[in-house]
Amino acid sequence: MTKTLPISIEDVRAAAKVLEGQIERTPMRHSRTLSEITGAEVWVKFENLQFTAAFKERGALNKLSKLTEAQKKAGVVAASAGNHAQGVAYHGRRLEIPTTIVMPVTTPFNKVEHTRAFGARVVLEGHTFDEAKAYAQSLQQQEGLTWIHPFDDADIMAGQGTIALEMLEDNPDLDTLIIPIGGGGLISGMAMAAKDHNRFIRVIGVEASMYAGMRARLEGREPKTGGASIAEGIAVKDVGILTERVVRELVDDVVVVEEEHIERAITLFADIEKTVAEGAGAAGLAAMLAHPTKFAGRRVGLVLCGGNIDSRLLASVLTRALVRDNRLVNIRIIGDDRPGLLALVSKVIGDAGANIVEVTHNRIALDVPAKGAEFDILMETRDAQHTQDVIDALTQAGYPPRTN
Q1: How many independent structural domains does the chain possess?
Q2: What does the alpha-carbon distance between residue 229 and residue 318 come to, in Å, rounded to a whole number?
């Protein structure tokens, strides 16, 4: 292992001593159902059970603990889309260190409010992390604050690496770790700990397709990033200088996932593990869904690294999953405008065991006869086959529907 890397296994172990008793030692559990779905032996590290609902407080606490008394008194500044912000704010308050957090104006409302609730001065500036970062660094100069980088810092990386120490203590036989990549702080620290434990363990990074900065760097390309990813926690324009060095040395592969895979992973965590995952937190499972042959038959450790997802966005993801699985279907029926027609159609649907969620009655559409009526019916079914059964029943009753 190259000696010139910015962190060592000793740094990660020292961080573990700093964090002991100061953060949650989150559980890691075997998921039988996710194992059946993916064809691998899946173990999930529930970092969404940290007090701030994300792993970021590990690195933040480790960094804050290293400050001089003068730095602590003057205060710190950070830029973050949310989880790093909450980690710095929460532990800053615990250690009586004034904190200023600059967040993009696009940051989910719940993350902004939680950060304020931890006592930080929150400044909303810029539409991207990089714009927020530039403003935070200007405040650093103006006010004499200490800059707390979200990922490209040895103390931050070492703190995040303690997750791998815990995972491999709980299950030393894991042969693959799948780790989300934004700027690279999490995977850098975890890779250092994992490769010290077993140099043959596979460390696989995963990036959202719109922000595949590390993959681009490793391939010698300039990153082209941007877009409204559901995984805003790893939606970073470019990776760190220090983190890239560690990833080049220790990480076996970096895979990319699409938004649909991330949505499916969020839904599976909710449906199967009964737990909330934000987009970045679900990226590891998304990688298994997107690239199943890479992980089939492996003993895989996933990091559910955060659960701070806006409730409206979570509701949208779960609803979209019902549509994707043909369990929430909109059908259109055109018939004569006569009393009792809607009741007859409703009876056919009800007798077939489906549930009507919403009905829209349109008498003025120009593609419908003047004496006709058009119904858009949103119905909930058990699965795609049940949906087809309902459509067949309506057709046999003389009301063949169109699906939208």
Answers
A1: 3
A2: 16
pLDDT digits (tens, 9 = 90+) for 166-222: 999 999 999 999 999 999 999 999 999 999 999 999 999 999 999 999 999 999 999
Cβ neighbors of 141 (< 8 A, separation 6 or more) are none
Question: CB within 8 A of 118, min separation 6: which ones?
Answer: 52, 86, 89, 90, 92, 93, 99
Q: What is the spatial distance between Cα 391 and Cα 274, in angstroms, rounded to a whole number?
A: 32
Q: What is the per-residue pLDDT across 142-173, written as a single tens digit (0 to 9) for each? A: 999 999 999 999 999 999 999 999 999 999 99
* Full strand arrangement of the beta sheet holding 253-257: 28-30, 41-46, 299-304, 176-180, 202-208, 253-257
d(CA 370, CA 364): 8
Integer Cα distance of 214 and 127 in angstroms: 21
- Give the separation between CA 398 and CA 187, rounded to whole angstroms: 59
Domain boundaries, position 83 = 58-147
Pairing of strands 299-304, 121-124: unpaired
In angstroms, the CA 299 to CA 136 distance is: 41
Which strands, in side-by-side order, build the sheet including 372-380?
355-362, 372-380, 328-336, 402-403
* Helix or strand (DSSP H, E) at 402: strand 402-403
Q: Which of 292, 320, 348 is the last residue of a domain?
A: 320
What letter would DSSP give residue 28? Answer: E
- Strand-pairing partners, residue 380, are 328, 355
pTM value? 0.90
